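Regression test case RT-17, inverse folding.

Input:
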């Protein structure tokens, strides 16, 4: 089966090698540079879906880079034969984008199916130098059905790539409705992970929480370690989810104490892991997707209703018994059948499973989890972590955090800005911030500036760092709170993603904030729709090149927020001396 159609300058080809009894239809709609391709499959009876491919081709005219939601540093333009990636519920997002040298969009291809596994490829076809994008559907086991439909959105508008991305991700909300973000999810948080890892106690947590509150933070996230005091293995004892008394003697009393300081409290759980040395390991034998030898833990199969009931009960009871404000639910991306792995359900004819498809079962599990938890606490906080951060996952997670990159300011910047593009409306959190206590305060501050356009999580040992570092934290948290709506929800403009976002700007209703990360690049202070703009110097140099659209007043601040000078600045391209890891606030002069 092969069907072809034209959409503007795009060739769209639908093909299936073995359609069997399936009837394919492919129609188009849309206008003004945004095309919609409607693909449907129909069958007179329930059968397994056939694998099929949708291919989109267009000439490579000024196409310089490629963007995908979980591409991280891989934003070059690989040939189509070496450009494969996957999206599904727990991995990435069903979207690929191509950008020109000037930072404008060339094509963004989105699929409305963010649940099932889709295999993507996209890049230059070396025989004719067309950009070829392929989407392969139904490469993973699916339960039989009689119909299927999917919509492709093809955006070819020659507009700012960041704006085009934002509109494409907004389109996903027609199919997947994000849950709201509680106010507490936008506070700066303290995390125990890098500061304590698994070696934590309630006394230590409470002491750090008192300091965290004094520095302006609004919550604490207690990570792995609270549930075990065993030191052998990685996740050997995970899966029983009982508090280790040597860590926290009375969890409810401990949470109440932290609440008395004015902080919210979140607790970590690794959703699918059942360790080989846990008591629950034998209980769930035969109900695992696979066993991970490196982690020494099995992965629960959510297609079993008793597995879903077990997990829902764990979080419901913890919420009620401990008085929590939220959960960090980790390792959702492991609930998947990896390429080359045999689905254990096939040999058992899906016995005991009420759902045959794993992503569908994960979707049912988390819809049930969030429904249960929100019935108890309507403003529940749920943190997920890159790479499970696509449009479907936002139905039950309202905090989306950059994946682990300890001490790596470039990775944290790239990952949070990628998430700002893909998570419009959800609270994007940076990876936790820690640094060596002997580092300079300016260098330590650049850990914060890397995640400037997201919610900061701090994981330094606050009692052990110098007072100057605590002063810097206090200023950075205060700065974040002052400009929060602009930083987290403003219109983001981040050109040159292939150069790791050297300049980033976010524009809100009342002000705009720009950060310069690389030396010898310039920032534009345009005063477009706002009279106040902030320029943050996130480089290691005190000289920043600025192109200012109008005469203005400028106030300069150092790394700890102290005013260093005030002056009038004329419009034009110029070099300004802004303290390293400091900022300058420009206020446009209004002629009366």
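Golden output:
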């Amino acid at each position: 089966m092969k069907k072809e159609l034209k959409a503007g300058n795009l060739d769209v080809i639908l093909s299936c090698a073995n359609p069997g009894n399936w009837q394919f239809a492919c129609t188009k709609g849309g206008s003004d540079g945004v095309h919609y391709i409607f693909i449907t499959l129909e069958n007179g009876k329930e059968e397994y879906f056939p694998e099929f491919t949708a291919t989109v081709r267009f000439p490579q005219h000024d196409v310089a880079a490629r963007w995908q939601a979980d591409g991280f540093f891989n934003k070059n333009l690989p040939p189509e034969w070496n450009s494969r990636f996957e999206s599904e519920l727990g991995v990435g997002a069903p979207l690929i984008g191509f950008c020109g040298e000037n930072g404008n969009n060339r094509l963004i291809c989105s699929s409305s199916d963010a649940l099932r596994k889709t295999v993507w490829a996209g890049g230059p076809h070396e025989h004719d130098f067309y950009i070829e994008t392929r989407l392969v559907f139904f490469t993973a086991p699916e339960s039989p059905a009689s119909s299927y439909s999917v919509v492709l959105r093809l955006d070819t508008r020659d507009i700012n790539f960041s704006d085009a991305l934002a509109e494409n991700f907004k389109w996903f909300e027609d199919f997947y409705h994000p849950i709201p973000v509680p106010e507490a999810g936008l506070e700066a948080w303290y995390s125990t992970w890098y500061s304590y890892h698994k070696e934590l106690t309630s006394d230590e947590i409470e002491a750090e929480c008192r300091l965290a509150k004094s520095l302006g933070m609004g919550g604490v996230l207690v990570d792995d370690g609270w549930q075990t005091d065993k030191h052998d293995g990685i996740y050997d004892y995970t899966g029983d989810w009982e508090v280790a008394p040597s860590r926290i003697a009375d969890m409810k009393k401990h949470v109440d104490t932290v609440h008395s300081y004015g902080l919210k409290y979140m607790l970590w759980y690794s959703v699918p892991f059942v360790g080989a040395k846990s008591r629950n390991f034998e209980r769930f034998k035969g109900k695992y997707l696979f066993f991970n030898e490196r982690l020494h833990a099995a992965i629960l199969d959510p297609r079993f209703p008793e597995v879903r009931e077990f997990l829902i009960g764990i979080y419901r009871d913890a919420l009620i018994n401990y008085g929590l404000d939220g959960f960090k639910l980790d390792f959702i991306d492991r609930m998947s059948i990896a390429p080359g792995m045999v689905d254990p359900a096939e040999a058992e004819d899906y016995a005991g499973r009420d759902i045959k498809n794993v992503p569908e079962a994960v979707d049912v599990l988390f819809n049930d989890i969030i429904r249960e938890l929100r019935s108890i606490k309507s403003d529940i906080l749920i943190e997920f972590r890159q790479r499970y951060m696509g449009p479907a996952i936002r139905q039950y997670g309202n905090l989306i955090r950059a994946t682990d990159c300890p001490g790596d300011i470039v990775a944290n910047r790239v990952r949070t800005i990628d998430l700002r593009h893909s998570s419009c409306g959800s609270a994007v959190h940076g990876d936790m911030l820690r640094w060596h206590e002997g580092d300079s305060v300016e260098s330590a501050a650049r850990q914060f500036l890397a995640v400037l356009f997201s919610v900061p999580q701090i994981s330094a040992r606050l009692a052990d760092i110098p007072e100057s570092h605590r002063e810097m934290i206090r200023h950075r948290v205060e700065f974040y709170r002052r400009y929060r709506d602009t930083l987290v929800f403003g219109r983001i403009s981040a050109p040159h993603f292939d150069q790791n976002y050297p300049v980033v700007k976010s524009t809100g209703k009342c002000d705009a904030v720009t950060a310069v990360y690389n030396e010898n690049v310039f920032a534009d202070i345009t005063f477009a729709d706002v009279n106040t703009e902030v320029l943050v110097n996130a480089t290691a140099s005190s000289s920043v090149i600025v192109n200012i659209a109008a005469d203005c007043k400028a106030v300069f601040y150092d790394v700890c927020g102290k005013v260093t000078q005030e002056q009038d600045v004329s419009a034009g391209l110029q070099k300004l001396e802004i303290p390293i890891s400091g900022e300058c606030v420009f206020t446009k002069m209004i002629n009366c």
